Amino acid sequence: MARPKITVVGAGNVGATCAHWAAAKELADVVLVDILEGMPQGKSLDLMQSRPIFGFNVEVTGANDYAATKGSEVVIITAGIPRKPGMSREDLINTNKNIVSTVTKEVAAQSPNAFLIIVSNPLDAMCYVAYKVSGFPKNRVMGMAGILDTARYRCFIAMELGVAVEEIQAMVLGGHGDEMVPVVSATNISGVPLTELLPADKIGALVERTKKGGGEIVALLKTGSAFYAPAAAAVQMAEAILKDQKRLVPVSAYLQGEYGLQDLFFGVPVILGAGGIEKVLTLKLSAAEEELLKKSAAAVAKTRDDLKM
């Protein structure tokens, strides 16, 4: 029986790390595509040579065109220029709109039944571009942001409390940017509410650090942005689809009325399985969280309008 195929577009740090995690988990054969000649081929060959050491047997192929991607079940799009220090996400928008449009057309032609997982920034806007250009149904186009933002939030809570990360249940909603909304009312450590374990000022500091989580890494690296955790989050989404795991995770999904939002990609909790986004869940939020979510939605809607699509 043929193994499924995952295509990763963009062989930079995020894309190459997606290929690495996906291959190491033996989720599928992996095709790494990039316009730079030799780069996806070199990274793929390097990953292939790690197989005897770690004992995984999927194929990893590098390519500069899309023929090798034909029949992919999942396509992870990381292509685009990265955010540089001092650059706003909005500065990225026009360049990355053109890149994501081109890539989406290519992958949709080769894999008309694929699920698209968008990682390119500004995230929610680039999901909108891929959705419009592909013509795919909304359950098959989604953005990787909520899982990453939630992972950062959970990581900071674990560091603060000195507890195992697996014990922490949490959810970050909203746009992928400074307006994201860590849902404190839904945060618990093995059932114990976070509010019982930490004072309000400490929780506020964790929420702020989560919102600036990507920027903190950009400032430290000076020449690039995060890639290990973003790639891990995208691969978790691919795994949920390929293994029909029915995971309840936050992703950027296309909304038509949910949370009072229309024609917008926005970070919300969904059930992710073999049908892609199988259901969007509506959480009960506190009044303060609802206000924050509205503010986040307004920022995302403005970026969507800037696309002029």
Strands side by side in the biggest sheet: 3-2-1-4-5-6
Output the helix-strand order: EHEHHEEHEHEHEEEEEHHHHEEEH
CATH topology of the largest domain: L-2-Hydroxyisocaproate Dehydrogenase, Chain A, domain 2
Rounded radius of gyration (Å): 19 Å
CATH architecture verdict of the largest domain: Alpha-Beta Complex
Helix vs. strand class: alpha/beta
Can you tell me the overall shape? globular
For the largest beta-sheet, the strand count, sense and barrel status come to:
6 strands, parallel
The CATH class assignment of the largest domain is: Alpha Beta
Helical run tally? 11
Low-confidence stretches: none
Question: Beta fraction of the residues?
Answer: 15-25%
Mean pLDDT: 95
What's the topology here?
Blueprint: E1 5-9, H1 13-24, E2 29-33, H2 39-49, H3 51-54, E3 60-63, E4 74-77, H4 93-110, E5 115-118, H5 123-134, E6 141-143, H6 146-161, E7 168-169, E8 172-173, E9 181-182, E10 188-189, E11 192-193, H7 194-197, H8 200-211, H9 213-221, H10 228-242, E12 247-256, E13 262-273, E14 276-280, H11 287-307
Parallel strand pairs: 1-2, 1-4, 2-3, 4-5, 5-6
Antiparallel strand pairs: 7-10, 8-9, 10-11, 12-13, 13-14
Helix pairs in contact: 1-2, 1-10, 4-5, 5-11, 6-8, 6-10
